[in-house]
Write a structure and sequence with these properties.
Number of strands: 72
Strand content: 35-45%
Strand order of the largest sheet: 36-37-38-40-39
Distance between the termini: 96 Å
Structural class: alpha+beta
CATH architecture of the largest domain: 2-Layer Sandwich
Number of helices: 7
Helix content: 10-25%
Shape: elongated
CATH class of the largest domain: Alpha Beta
Radius of gyration: 58 Å
CATH superfamily of the largest domain: Histidine kinase-like ATPase, C-terminal domain
CATH topology of the largest domain: Heat Shock Protein 90
Length: 941
């Protein structure tokens, strides 16, 4: 990708002007912004004002800005709308300055939307072809080879002639650094009137190809060219030949961010990050390396380093010059898997399928022989034997190999001897590493199935304290004679006198259980792992780690060499060189921002507090942490105070928190960023959230409901009490009416006559009839007394009581009338109930005032029928009738009749109030007799 320009804003975001648009990078995600009305997609010259508004231009000289995620074109002055701008800047007062159209200058003040054309104050008007702002906020104009400084009133206060062809310039705190032709750099002091000073040396190889000058936080000047970027330490009296970063790449820009990372933009190769410029990487793009996978390293007596790589290549690295000075192409074999320097004989042993021997003086090959299939490790035993660990076996042979007179091997007599090669096979099977101890007659070989030591012509396996085999990948011996073993899955073992004395693993300090290389120096262990370099302090148990987050091109360390001031790392992506006292702990606190909130997946305007309805409780909160050095290996921790006390943790790519059903209440959402070294952001980003209670959960509603409930309970109690009192009154009235009715039914004449008739039967010794009538009389008395207390009785009980009553009355009148009770078929006398004892008073009236006056037998007919949910009771007699009864002069009888009717009416009224049922009756006068009709409510049992 083509990247023209780069900038870090005040929030820590990285902005890029590219050929594909304006991008913002947070260390994990890239965001590209749409720029409306832009003529083209390529943008450059990024700047930010104090409000966080980002400005940029395109190659059509249009000016744009982005604020709160939205891009728009800046309306230029009328004079520049067709031609566009040549340069612009934002001053310390947030005023926007532009120049164009033959040097015309315009300014738009922060509080105004209007452009004003300005001219310098002085004897001659000066126009600005280019505008600059120095570190002190002073305005500079570049005009016809002259730099002009202005004050705030636009008065010319200084003119600086430029006596060379200016290619680029940059303002530092105290100087102007400019580039002339042929890569020459000049400085001009802003505090001393000393004129231009040529800086020592020149940018070698840069020439006119220099395209940008940049300054880092350490005030180093960076020269960005068509052929890489290079720091220039102009503060030194003499120029130093610094390492070229991104060699052979067109570097278009450079910045150093707040975490001290270096960012380089290129034309055609995208964006690069260097976490530490003092850590140098040699690869195929910036050195003589043809293959970037380095398999092994070996140090010669001068301290220089041999490098074995894939592809038959052997290189020589000069540690003083810090560059590869020699390359040797090996004709035979394949990749170089292991190297060994014999300082005594000044020989170099190289694995290249066979063992190649070189003279260190002139690097001429002096010998070549076979010692196993692709040896992986060499070791010298007792200064006379060479041990190899190879892909199919471990072998031992003489160091001195004279083709004319081979010396026989005098060790391990029980092992078969290969006289042709003058070798002895120690053990068959794949082996990976060999190490001979320096002070004892013992050596070690790591096989695919375990670790073995050889001593006294015997072979013996060493296992872990829990009797597990040790699968070794690398071994070394420290100054105290302790053997350190790195393994594939078991961490690191320390072995002394054939006994494991220490075991390090991820549970007690290591970053990985895989360790290919172990070197001990003092209290420090240097460990080459698959997760980078670890320097472990055996005393303090503290570690320093150098990995890809710190700028290592690959975490796989295949070999390493520790020197006095430097550490050299063989990786799968080249050779890395770093200071021995490196410190890659990132103490810069990361940044954290809340970037959005959605309710039911609908985006909301970002604000500090939200007051939401009770059903707007499905929330998703988005946040962004900025920890650029971590390479995306930082974490988030967040919680919703008021809902949870413990923190939740997310990885860098999971930058949101969901709360699908947040209960009503007050909350504060909090989120922090934790960088790769456990350093938390200083600030805790947060928002206040209030989820309203529904109406039925609000205090006033609950209070109102309680009051209403209390009022309702009071009303219920009141009406219950009133109903109870009313019922009591009605029951008392009914009891009184029933008593009156009972008095009517228990007429003394009726009782006296009935008892007299029964007595007559007894006197005449008619025991049968006396017994029958006495039983009926007792049943009638009991029924009257029981039914008078009931609101309803069964129709069957009512009929039985009437039959007993009529039977006794007939006895009293000596069989002087007939009676009949009929029942409609629709009536089920067992399951239908009616109010009791309404018929009896009128039956008595029919007998006493109607039938009793007849000279012939009378009759009474009682009929029960059902009509429209009402029981119809008809009492019909053939007595003298109502009119004849009225004419009688027997006052007692009139009173008796009047009382029966009145009491019946009172009972009807009381039933109507008590039972809310209507009872009606009417009395009809017939040609012969009277008919009384009752309409009685009923209920079913």
């Amino acid at each position: 990708m083509v990247v023209y320009n780069i900038m870090e804003d005040h929030q820590g975001y990285i902005w890029l002007g590219t050929e594909a648009g304006i991008c913002r990078y947070d260390g994990v995600h890239f965001q590209t912004f749409k720029v409306p009305s832009a003529r083209g997609k390529s943008f450059t010259n990024l700047q930010e004002d104090s409000q966080g508004r980002v400005y940029f231009v395109n190659f059509s000289k249009q000016l744009f800005s982005i604020y709160q995620g939205k891009a728009k074109a800046v309306l230029l002055p009328r004079q520049l709308q067709k031609t566009g701008i040549d340069s612009y800047f934002i001053d310390h007062h947030n005023h926007l300055w532009v120049s164009g159209n033959q040097g015309a200058i315009f300014v738009k003040y922060a509080q105004s939307q209007q452009w004003r054309q300005v001219r310098t104050q002085g004897p001659v008007s000066i126009y600005g072809v280019q505008l600059f702002l120095d570190k002190q906020g002073k305005i500079w104009l570049l005009y016809l080879g002259v730099l002009v400084q202005l004050d705030e009133q636009l008065k010319v206060i200084r003119k600086v002639q430029i006596p060379f062809l200016l290619m680029n310039l940059i303002f530092t705190q105290k100087e102007i650094i400019a580039q002339g032709q042929a890569g020459t750099l000049y400085s001009y002091s802003l505090t001393k009137e000393s004129g231009w000073k040529k800086l020592p040396g020149e940018i070698k190889g840069a020439g006119a190809s220099l395209i940008l000058l940049a300054e880092d936080h350490q005030q180093n000047i960076w020269v960005c060219t068509y052929n890489g970027a290079k720091p220039y330490l102009h503060s030194q009296e003499t120029s130093t030949d610094q390492f070229v970063f991104l060699k052979n790449k067109f570097v278009s820009g450079m910045i150093q961010d707040r975490e001290e990372n270096y960012w380089f933009t290129t034309l055609g190769h995208g964006l690069f990050k260097v976490s530490n410029k003092d850590i140098v990487h040699f690869n195929a793009r910036n050195s003589n390396l043809e293959s970037e996978q380095i398999n092994c390293l070996a140090q010669d007596p001068k301290g220089n380093i041999f490098i074995g790589t894939n592809g038959n290549q052997l290189y020589y690295f000069d540690t003083k010059e810090q560059k590869i000075t020699e390359k040797h192409h090996l004709k035979d074999g394949g990749d170089v898997e292991c190297l060994l320097v014999d300082s005594v004989r000044r020989k170099l042993y190289v694995e290249n399928y066979q063992v190649l021997v070189f003279d260190l003086q002139n690097m001429k090959q002096t010998d070549k022989y076979w010692m196993g299939s692709t040896p992986k490790s060499f070791s010298i035993y007792q200064n006379k034997y060479l041990i190899t660990a190879s892909g199919d076996q471990a072998l031992i042979g003489h160091l001195e190999r004279n083709t004319e007179s081979l010396l026989p091997l005098d060790i391990f007599p029980h092992i078969s001897y290969d006289s042709l090669r003058n070798l002895k096979r120690l053990r068959s099977g794949r082996s990976r590493v060999a190490l001979a101890e320096s002070a004892k007659p013992r050596f070690w070989v790591g096989y695919a199935d375990g670790l073995y030591f050889y001593e006294g012509n015997r072979e013996q396996e060493l296992k872990t304290p829990d009797q597990q085999p040790i699968i070794a990948l690398g071994m070394s011996e420290d100054a105290e004679g302790i053997v350190w073993v790195g393994t594939a899955q078991q961490g690191v073992f320390a072995i002394e006198n054939k006994r494991v004395i220490q075991h390090l693993h991820p549970n007690n300090g290591l970053i990985s259980e895989f360790c290919r290389r172990v070197i001990k120096e003092g209290d420090l262990l240097y460990l080459g792992t698959d997760k980078g370099l670890q320097v472990y302090n055996l005393q303090t148990k503290q570690s320093r780690v150098f990995n890809q987050s710190d700028g290592l091109p690959s975490n796989e360390i295949r070999d390493l060499i520790v020197q006095r001031n430097k550490i050299y790392l063989a990786t799968a992506a080249g050779l890395s060189v770093l200071d021995k006292n490196f410190n890659t702990t990132n103490y810069t606190p990361p940044l954290i921002y809340i970037t959005g909130l959605t309710i039911h997946n609908e985006p909301q305007k970002l604000q500090k507090q939200y007051v939401l309805a009770y059903d707007d409780n499905n929330l998703t909160i988005h946040f962004t942490g900025i920890a650029l050095r971590s390479g995306g290996k930082f974490r988030y921790k967040y919680r919703m105070e008021g809902l949870e006390k413990a923190w939740n943790y997310n990885g860098s790519t999971n930058n949101l928190a969901r709360y699908s059903a947040l209960p009503s209440g007050k909350y504060r959402f909090q989120v922090k960023t934790i960088n790769e070294d456990g350093i938390e952001s200083k600030e805790t980003a947060g928002i206040e959230i209030v989820i309203a209670y529904p109406v039925w959960e609000k205090w006033w509603f609950i209070t109102l409901m309680i009051l209403l409930a209390l009022a309702l309970m009071g009303a219920i109690i009141f009406f219950r009490l009133r109903a109870y009192r009313r019922k009591t009154r009605l029951e008392k009235a009914l009891s009184t009416a029933a008593l009156e009715s009972l008095k009517l039914q228990m007429n003394p004449h009726f009782i006296f006559n009935a008892m007299g008739a029964i007595q007559n039967y007894m006197i005449t010794n008619d025991t049968r009839h006396s017994s029958i009538y006495l039983a009926k009389f007792s049943k009638l008395m009991r029924a009257v007394l029981e039914n008078s207390r009931q609101e309803y009785i069964s129709l069957n009980n009512e009929i039985e009581m009437l039959e007993n009553y009529l039977s006794l009355q007939n006895l009293r009148f000596e069989e002087g009338f007939d009676y009949r009770i009929t029942i409609d078929e629709q009536l089920d006398t067992e399951f239908i109930a009616i109010p009791p004892m309404f018929a009896q008073p009128f039956i008595e009236n029919a007998i006493e005032h109607g039938i009793a006056r007849l000279k012939k037998n009378g009759w009474i007919q009682i009929n029960f029928s059902l009509h429209e949910k009402v029981v119809i009771l008809k009492i019909t007699d053939n007595g003298v009738g109502i009119e004849n009864s009225i004419e009688t002069k027997q006052t007692q009888k009139k009173v008796h009749h009047s009382l029966a009717t009145t009491i019946t009416q009172e009972r009807i009224d009381l039933y109507r109030q008590s039972l809310k049922k209507n009872i009606t009756f009417e009395v009809k006068s017939l040609k012969q007799g009277t008919q009384v009709i009752f309409h009685l409510p009923y209920q079913q049992f």
